Amino acid sequence: MKNPFRRNAPDREQVVPSVKTGLGTFGGVFTPSLLTILGVIMYLRFGWVVGNVGLLGTLIIVTLGTAITFLTALSIAAIATDQQVRTGGAYYMISRSLGIEIGGAIGIPLYIALALSVALYTVGFAESVTSVFPSLDFKTVGLVTTLGVATLATISAKVAIRAQYFIMFGIVLSLISLFFGSPIEDTTIEMWGAADRNSEDFWVVFAVFFPAVTGIMSGINMSGDLKNPSKSIPRGTFAAIGVGYVIYMILPIILANRADALSLIDDPMIMRKMAYWGDAILIGVWGATLSSAVGSILGAPRVLQALARDRVLPRSLGWLGKGSANDDAPRYGTVFTLAIALVAVYMGNLNILAPVLTMFFLTTYGILNAAAGIEGVLDSPSFRPSFKVHWIFSLLGTLGCIAVMLLINALATALALAFILVVFFWLQSREMKTAWGDVRRGLWMAVIRAGLLSLGQKKESKTWRPNPLVLSGAPTKRWHLIDFAASITHNRGILTVATVLTGNQIDNERRKRMEYNIQDFLSKRSARGFARVISAPNPFKGAAEFVKFYGLGSIVPNTIILGDSENEAIRQEYCDMIAQFHTLKRNVIIVHDNEEKGFGNRERIDLWWGGLKGNGGLLMLLAYLMQSSLAWYDAKVRIKMMVPNEKAAKDARRNLSAVIKKLRTGAVLEVIISDGRSFDTVLHESSADADLIFMGMALPGAHFIDYYTKLQQRIRSLPTTVMVLAAEEISFGEVLMQQDAFRED
C-alpha cells in the first residue's frame, strides 16, 4: 500500500493533458454518429428484420432500441455537461463517476465491442461487394478493407472526418433513390412475422438490429478531439438519434410495401432492386459500412489509450497510451485494434458479431444510465450539470438495458456480467489509486445516513453485537488486544483502535500519519477497523473524553478493551477511568496478558460464572463469540462454578444444566466443590492449563482501587485472563437466546 502522505504522488488526471483538435458538433459528433446509425444493419439486415417480425414488430423494435439509446443519451448529456470530458468517451465518464474499477470493468468490454464493430462493418462491406462481384473472395475483400480504414484513421482523424462528409452525401443520395423507387413484386403487408415459415424470435431479431442504434458511441468516443465536448456531445447525439429514428420508422413502411417477407429475408441487397437508381444503394452501402468502420477504428483506440493512461491495462500494455504527432493520435492503439479486427473479419459474419456487440453495448449503456441516476439520487453539491435529467429516466434506462439483455439471451447476459465482474475484482485487487473522486463515497454516505436515522436510539437485544474500542497504545506492542477484539466481532462489529498521545508538540499532520500507519498495520493483519489517534495532557482523562464523544448517532463503541496495568503510580487514575467508562454505560474488558503463553493453543476457554445476572450474561456471550471465531474455532468452553458442598453441587448441576442447554452455546458445566479451599486456590488449581480465562469484575465504588489491587494479585500467575464489567442497559441473557446469528458463515 502506498503512503498517501508521500509528497509528489503521481496524479493520473494530470499525467497527459487532453489535446483538442477543434472538431465541432456537426463534424465531430453528429456526422460520425448518424453515419454509424445509418450503417450496415440498415442496408443489409433491415429487410431481414421486417421479413421476420413484420411491419408492426419492426416499428416496435426500432422504437424500443431508440428509446434505450435516447435515455442513455439523456444520461450522457447530464454527465457531459457536468464534467470536463477528455479522451475515452463513455469509459472516461463512467470511471470519473463510479470509480476506476467500474470504469475499467466497462471500458475493457466497450473497447472489445468497438474493435469488433470494425469487423462488423467491414464484413458488411465485403458481403455487399461480393454480392455484386461474385468472383471476388469474401475474406480477402474484408481484410483489405479493414487495412484500408485503419490506414485512413492512422493518417489523421480530421482527414477521416472530412471523408465522411462525402459518404454522407452518398447515403442521402441512396435514400432518395430508394424513396422514389418502386415495388419489385405484389405483396401483402404483414404486421407480424408468420409462424408457418419458422421466423426468428422477436428478441433474436432485436439483438441483430440493436447495433444500428448504438452509433452514438462513435461521436462520444471522439470526446478528446472535440473543441467543446460538453456542448457538442449532447447536441450532436440528440440530433443523430432524432434523424436516425425518423429514417428507421419510414424505411419499414417502404420495404413492406415493395416486397414480400420471404424476399426481404433471403436477399440482403433487396433495396438495390427497389431503388430508382440501384447503384445508388451500392454507394450508400459502401459509404455507410466504410464510414461506420472508420468511426469505430477512430473510437476504439482512443478508449484503449484512455485505459492505458489510467493504468487500467497491465503494465506490459502501457505503451498503448502513447500519442503521436501534434493531435495526440493513438497510432499504437490503432495498430493493436487493427490486429483484433483482422482476426474477427477472418472468423466472423454479421449474424454472429451483431449479438455479441449488442450485449457489450447494452452493458455500457446500462452503466452510463446508472452513473447519471446515482448522481441524481445523491444530489451531491459537486454534480451540477447544465443539462438536467431527473434520475428516474436514468434508472429507467438502466432497467431497460437489463431487461432487454435478459430477454435476448439470459445465458449471454450472465456471461457478459461474469466477464465484467472478473475485470472489476481484478482491478480492485490491484488497489488502484486515482487523482479524482467518484460517486461511491457519496452513495455509501447516503446509505449510512438512512441507516443511522432508521436505527434511532433504541437498543434491542436481538441485534446486539460488540462494537469494541481498543485503547491499544502502540498497536504493534499490544496486538493481543486487537486480536481479541477481532475475534469477538467476527469482522461484523465496528472495531476502532485508538491511541492517546501526550505532549504539546503533536500536530495534526503527525496524528494523521500515525493513523495511517495503524490502519496499514491492521490491513496487513487482516483486521478490519478504524484507527484514531488523539492528543491530551493526561492519557486517562483524554481516553475518557474520547470515549464520551466518539461515535455517530446511535453507533458508538459499546465495549472498551484495555490492557491491564500493574503500575501502582497510575492505579488511581486507571481505576477512575474504568469508573467513568461504566458511568457512560460502556462495557469494560481488561485483558491481563500472560507474556510467556499468550493465547496458548486456543483450545480451552475457562469461564468463572455466577449466573446470567450482572456480568454472567456478557461473560457467556463473549466466550461463545471467541469459540465461534475463526481464530478460536471449536475451542472448548468450560463454565466453572465453585460451591461449598455436595448438596449445593447437585442443586447447581440440576438448575444450571437446563439453562446452559437452552443457551445452545456448546459450553460444558463444571461444578467444583471447595472442600474448605479458598476461591483463589481453586481458581489456580482448576484453570492453570486453560488458554484463556474469563472472570467478572465488581462494580466501581468507593473502595474499587483496593478491590482492583487484590484482583491483580489473584490473576498474576494465571494464563491470559479477561476481566469483564457489564454496563449496558441491555439483557445479555436475551442476546444469548439469539446467539446463532453470530455464527461464522
From TrEMBL:
Gene3D superfamilies in UniProt: Amino acid/polyamine transporter I (1.20.1740.10)
Entry annotated with the keyword Transmembrane: yes
Topology of this chain in the membrane: Multi-pass membrane protein
Domain SLC12A transporter C-terminal per the UniProt entry, residue ranges: 479-564, 602-667
One GO CC term, this protein: membrane
Keywords assigned by UniProt, alphabetized: Membrane, Transmembrane, Transmembrane helix, Transport
Major localisation: membrane
Protein localization: Membrane
GO MF annotation terms: chloride:monoatomic cation symporter activity
Transmembrane segment boundaries: 21-44, 56-81, 102-126, 163-182, 202-224, 236-255, 275-300, 329-346, 352-374, 395-427
Any single Pfam family the record assigns to this protein: SLC12
UniProt-listed PANTHER family: GH08340P, SOLUTE CARRIER FAMILY 12, CATION COTRANSPORTERS
Family assignment from sequence similarity: Belongs to the SLC12A transporter family.
This protein's name: Amino acid transporter
